[in-house]
Amino acid sequence: MNWAAIRVIYVTEMARFFRTIAQSFISPVISTSLYFVVFGAAIGSRINEVEGVSYGAFIVPGLIMLSVMTQAITNASFGIYFPKFIGTIYELLSAPVNFLEIVLGFVGAAATKALFIGLVILGTAALFVDVQILHPVAMISFLVLTCLSFSLFGFIIGIWAQSFEQLQLIPLLVVTPLVFLGGSFYSISMLPPIWQSITLFNPVVYLISGFRWSFFGVADVPIALSLLAIAGFTALCLAAVWWIFRTGWRIRG
Amino acid sequence: MDNIVEIRDLRKTYAGGFEALKGVNLSIKKGEILALLGPNGAGKTTLISTICGITNPGSGSVLVGGHDVVTQYRDARRLIGLVPQEINLEPFSKVKDTVAFSRGLFGKPRNPALIERILRQLSLWEKRDARVVELSGGMKRRVLIAKALSHEPEVLFLDEPTAGVDVELRKDMWDIVAELKELGTTIILTTHYIEEAEAIADRIGVISSGQLLLVEEKAELMARLGQKRLQIDLQDKLSAVPDVLVEYNLELVEDGQALRYTYDTRGERTGITRLLGDLASAGITLTDIQTEQSSLEEIFVGLVKEGAA
Ligand SMILES: Nc1ncnc2c1ncn2[C@@H]1O[C@H](COP(=O)(O)OP(=O)(O)O)[C@@H](O)[C@H]1O
Ligand SMILES: [Mg+2]
């Protein structure tokens, strides 16, 4: 293993993040506070409780997931797209590094940033509502796995993208709707039966449900299914990344 | 083992079906400066990219330090420093950071003292904390060289290091290359300037349309260059060169209507005066004389035409 290479990629990527640390910190704090003002105050006054949990607390896991997923994808896709765009990718291609080392560096950094933001949101939420965490180990595991798998997914998007528009296309057109419709702000059981069935095709449902279970012990789908979903998604992304580096798809002519 | 790079029958066809390398064979000696001379689109960058791992080779093999660049890429690449043709640098990183980054990427432990030495050698030390965007074009080019040298490579590839660079900077670049050679680095540089190949190379390879047309010691090429031909048109046809003129190695050309004398312009004496005297004594009447010189440019153009035909 070329550990030095992993270290410099990781450190360089994190440095970009720290250069804008204030911004990285403040924007999730503000947006989380806004969610609580809007959802907590406006909607929360109508919906008191969902499955025995106060509405304000109920939306916390979904809120964290929403940010973590979009942040992971944005950071990782930009992280690898940027060297392609400015041409510095030549250095990665001509260095004695393998795909695993490149991925560990870039995806590791993107996942770290996403995790940081997830924790900032959790902290901010705790200022507004009483957040209890029934299964802390499961909570952290879900959070970390989500950061990792969505960073991997973002990495793939960054390799695939050939323009800035394409870079933003998938997060905007696919991920954000899936997350919003994935039960971030409501329980699946609140939907009409037909929508409940349709919703089950949305993979994000399983992640949010599992994550919420680790907070409150209530879930839309069995927890085993949630674990399977996140493990499967991670495996799928890993396989795709492995294939990309083996064939040099879109990076090595 | 004297050859640090061995290229065998290397072919490369791009995705669109264009064959950019058509079976290149080349051995590069340890410690030499080899200039790959060729017009734009000849395949110079493709050749370097294939050696360095930026493009996948089609067929054939490349060994660097005895390691196959595909199957033993780690060992091979550790020996290689690459300065790309385009100035590909992250605009907002600091000079010393981006150089340290390259070193880490090649698996080497941090070594600030070495990086200081490289930056000083390239007159970049004063700019170590500057961001890349703040640098001039020539300095950016030197940052690329510093990055390539950061992991102490044995072979350095410089892809058109002086394209679009002014005369003074070009001289600087040549000095840098000469210094690196002194330190034992093998250097392969591509160029489409003949003077550049003449000025710094030990050997010159001429590449065109994906084929390596010739690789020769510069001295030999220059010797060929230094040769001039004198053509002597005769009034009366000769059937053979007269015996008294045998020492001049004359060629009978144009159906015996002319004699050709090849001589070295760099010699103390060209022998022309004596030849003309001997011709007169042999009773040969001249109608005209002309001289012509084959420049590297001519050799080059000739080769490129042959290659295209
Ligand atoms: N990625 C690519 N896809 C298709 N053709 C390419 C690609 N890169 C270079 N070529 C073609 O290959 C030939 C050689 O290019 P290159 O190696 O860049 O030449 P040089 O460096 O000698 O100017 C050119 O005709 C060029 O158009
Ligand atoms: Mg080129």
UniProtKB/TrEMBL annotation, chain A:
**Localization, UniProt:** Cell inner membrane; Membrane
Q: Does the keyword Nuclease apply?
A: no
Q: Could you tell me which InterPro entries the record lists for this protein?
A: ABC-2_transport_permease, ABC2_TM, ABC2_TM_bact-type, ABC_2_transport
Enumerate the transmembrane spans. 20-43, 55-82, 102-128, 140-161, 167-186, 198-215, 221-245
Query: Which residue range or ranges hold the ABC transmembrane type-2 domain?
Result: 19-248
- Its topology with respect to the membrane? Multi-pass membrane protein
From what superkingdom does this record's organism come?
Answer: Bacteria
Q: Name one GO molecular function term.
A: ABC-type transporter activity
- Give the UniProt keywords, A-Z: Cell membrane, Membrane, Transmembrane, Transmembrane helix, Transport
What is one cellular component GO term in this UniProt entry?
Answer: ATP-binding cassette (ABC) transporter complex
Family membership noted in the UniProt record = Belongs to the ABC-2 integral membrane protein family.
Q: Which PANTHER family match?
A: INNER MEMBRANE TRANSPORT PERMEASE YADH-RELATED (PTHR43332), TRANSPORT PERMEASE PROTEIN (PTHR43332:SF1)
Q: What is this protein called?
A: Transport permease protein
Organism the protein comes from: Shimia abyssi
Automatic annotation (TrEMBL), chain B:
Question: Which named protein is this?
Answer: ABC-2 type transport system ATP-binding protein
- InterPro entries named in the record: AAA+_ATPase, ABC_transporter-like_ATP-bd, ABC_transporter-like_CS, ABC_transporter_ATP-binding, P-loop_NTPase, YD
Q: Which PROSITE patterns match?
A: ABC_TRANSPORTER_1, ABC_TRANSPORTER_2
Alphabetized, the UniProt keywords read:
ATP-binding, Nucleotide-binding, Transport
GO MF: ATP binding; ATP hydrolysis activity
Pfam families in the cross-refs: ABC_tran
Highest taxon of the source? Bacteria
